[in-house]
Amino acid sequence: MATLQISSSLFRSFFLTLCLFVIPSLSSDSDPLQDFCVGDLKASPSINGFPCKSAVSASDFFYSGLGGPLDTSNPNGVTVAPANVLTFPGLNTLGISMNNVELAPGGVNPPHLHPRATEVGTIIEGSVFVGFLTTNNTLFSKVLNAGEVFVIPRGLVHFQWNVGQVKARMITAFNSQLPGAVVLPSTLFGSNPEIPNAVLTRAFRTDVTTVHNLKSKFAV
């Protein structure tokens, strides 16, 4: 009985120790080890971002790049102004970033995913149809108006569509300094090198002519 109790205690201790190592790894970015670390974008990034700048000033902690209006005269009718570590180095190691997203009437932020972050956003103006897809192909969607909020779980495919008659604007935030974006149409049909036509024709159950036509629209 004593041996069993000791083994049980050792197992609980091992399990709790394991949790201490595993649970922090579930966060999107590593925890910072200092008050701040303004990124030196001229240096090569490490596993937790960029090395710290040696000389820091107040301007490193303020950013004006989320203002508008943005030019949405492009095929998708959407423009994103990011405040991530690449545009706002003060975010380095802090595990957070934001976007200003503007959509022309009828504009679409095409299906995409963020591999390193959960996204939360609020509609500033306009009416936006927001949707995301789960791993079992269930669509969750709703038309949101100014003041309403949405959340997109990390790594799930999602999109936004301006269903109003005027420009729409959203502010989105991420629990990563650089959430990344895999935009499905351009990733699949505009990759370099190209995905073989045989793969795309079989995957989309279509023909080579259609694949060539789609690739021509996303050629770099």
From TrEMBL:
One cellular component (GO) term of this entry: apoplast
Binding site for oxalate: 99, 109, 114, 119
GO molecular function: manganese ion binding
Cupin type-1 domain: residues covered: 64-212
Keyword Metal-binding: yes
Compartments where found: Secreted, Extracellular space, Apoplast
Annotated InterPro entries: Cupin_1, Germin, Germin_Mn-BS, RmlC-like_jellyroll, RmlC_Cupin_sf
Residue sites binding Mn(2+) per the record: 112, 114, 119, 158
Keyword Secreted attached: yes
Coiled-coil intervals, chain numbering: none
Signal peptide interval: 1-30
Disulfide bond residue pairs: 37-52
Keyword line: Apoplast, Disulfide bond, Glycoprotein, Manganese, Metal-binding, Secreted, Signal
Pfam family, any one: Cupin_1
PANTHER family (alphabetical): GERMIN-LIKE PROTEIN SUBFAMILY 3 MEMBER 3 (PTHR31238)
Function: May play a role in plant defense. Probably has no oxalate oxidase activity even if the active site is conserved.
Similarity annotation: Belongs to the germin family.
Name assigned to this protein: Germin-like protein
Organism from which the protein derives: Arabidopsis arenosa
